[in-house]
Structure of non-specific protein-tyrosine kinase:
Amino acid sequence: MEGTVLDPAGGAPGATSASVMHRLRGVWRRRWVMLGVALAVTALTAAWTLRQPRIYAASTSLIIDVTAPRILDGEVKEVMGEERSNYWFNKEYYATQSEIITSRAVASRVVDRLGLAKDAAFLGLPANQDPAERAKALEGADAVGLLRSRIQVVPGKDSRVMNIGVEDVDPTRAALLSNEVAAAYMAENLALKLRTTEEARTWLEGRLDELGRQSKAGEMAVYDLKKDADMLSTSLESRLSIVSERINSYNLKLTEVRTRIAAQQARVDAIHRLRKDAGNDETWAEAVPGAKDGPIQDLKSRYGEQKAACAELTERYLPEHPKLLECNRKLDVVRADLLKSLTNVVRSAETQLAEAQGEERNLNKLLDETKAEAFQVNKKAIEYGRLQRESDNNQRLYELVLKRLKDIELSGLLRTSNVRVLDAAQPVMVPVRPHTRRNLLVGWVMGLLLGLGVALFLEMLENSVTSQADVEDVLGLAFLGVVPRMEATKAPGDRDLYVHRAPRSAVAECCRAVRTNLLFMSPDHPCKTLVVTSSGPQEGKSTTCINLGVAMAQSGNRVLLLDTDMRRPRLHRAFGVPNDLGISSLVVGEGSLDKAVKSTEVPNLFVLPCGPLPPNPAELLHTRAFKELLRQAGERFDRIILDSPPLNAVVDAAVLATQADGVVMVLKAGRTDRGAAKRALRSLADVQARMFGAILNDVDLRQPRYGDTYLGYQGYGPTQDEPKGGVAPS
């Protein structure tokens, strides 16, 4: 595994099994917090439960039918409606009854009947309360609302049974209230029926009076119409029959007259044609029908005889003969009488035609008058029918409302109810609340859950790096190992060289493990130059740098420690060497590397002090002289470890990281902030530094959180060098 250039500030891409286990271990470490919270919540629950008053319950069972028993005949129906077998209707009905039982109307009946508004025990008022205060409390108390809050309605499953339960601090009063609520519900149900019946009766009475007036007005309207139409002695049907007979008679007579007119018209037309065709021939009239009647025939015979006599006299006498003249005179008289008679025959035919035509006109007039009378009678009949129907409808509605009113009056006299008591409530001496055992169990469970929440909350608030999971999952770094906490009684110099002076201690073993991990980071290209840094001061980077150098020197490598912290150097104090000649001197060209490098009491371990503190450390580390110094040191030593300043304080470590093979981050367990560590790693990522990993420093192996993970460092091998107590190396 080789060191890589990455963006460690981004952290791990998601939750891993290691991080989950880390969270679980963190919660388990706080198990005493969880237990304490659970015990506290349980104790509070027990105290609250014991302080609660004992509540008793009583229940009354009712059987509720959809309709009351039918006592009257089926023809007499009640106002409340008919029974239905529809499932949804029954469901809504029983739900409605439940609402009625818990209504203010029912509760008010019980409060008024038992005087609960003045009952201090029912209202929960103290017995030793001041009378004035009690009177004021009674005035402001809502006994009805309090009773409603204690009523519970439980319908029986698949039945018509309804259970009315009431809770109270007194078991006897709970049974009394339950029975009274049932009685009040039955009374309210009956009162509702009576109120509905009374409202219906009042409405029907008003409607009956109105229908009576309308029926009477309709009868008078029919009477007035019959009077106006003169139908008091003859019915309307008879009038219509008479008019119809007259119309038929007139039609028959008119037909006869028109037939006679046609005949007369034909006769007159024939006479006119004869007169026109005869010209001056006066005998044309002889062809007229009726010209051969007796008187005309006598005149015609006399005319012929006289004409013959005149013809005879003409043969015998001259025209001027008196006898011939007398004969001709008589002939003219007879001829005039004959023509007059024939003319009268013609006039008679014309007169008969005119008479027939006049009769036709009179018949048409009579027929029109009769038809108009028929139409008028029909109109009266329509009006009469309408008025008669209205009168009949009003009368029928009047009789129907009258019958319904009698039915309601009769049904209203009944006091039957569709509700009856199945089982009356009895006092039960076992309280239903509080449930001590259940409350304690719930309190214990809720306490455990609350404790778990508190533990998780504390774990989430833990923002420091404390474990390998934090290094790998949160920071995204390779975990190189841990360095246990050293003894607090050690002198600073002893702590710095603790690995050398206690080679069999847990600290030495951990440093050797870190050394092994570093050497195996890149076996083909082993790291030669290594920068050791941290995110902030006082995290143990200098001590870790020394311990790591000692561990590498013990493996046979020539190791050089460079104190590149040119602001607060301390490697020279740890090894007890002078600081008059060091890195800053070599960079500016004063002295040589051989003179500046100091040997230590650790074989193969050398140190190059910082030298005099320069005013510009960052610029000094950027120079070509410093790079040349690193090159020369690399030729003479196997490993070069640079002790650099904290990353978040100055930029020196980032400058050094660009000139070394890799960087090792030192994190102080329980102190290094995750955010600060991420910012430090971001600065290294910005300069493309190669990260080898992180070392978790100052780990207290006695803490429970590390007991399973690093158990091998405590329980295996000699223990005479093991640390016994607690200060962090600086």
Summary: The domain at 468-711 is CATH 3.40.50.300 (Rossmann fold). Residues 7-15, 715-730 have pLDDT under 50 and may be disordered. The first helix runs from residue 17 to 29.
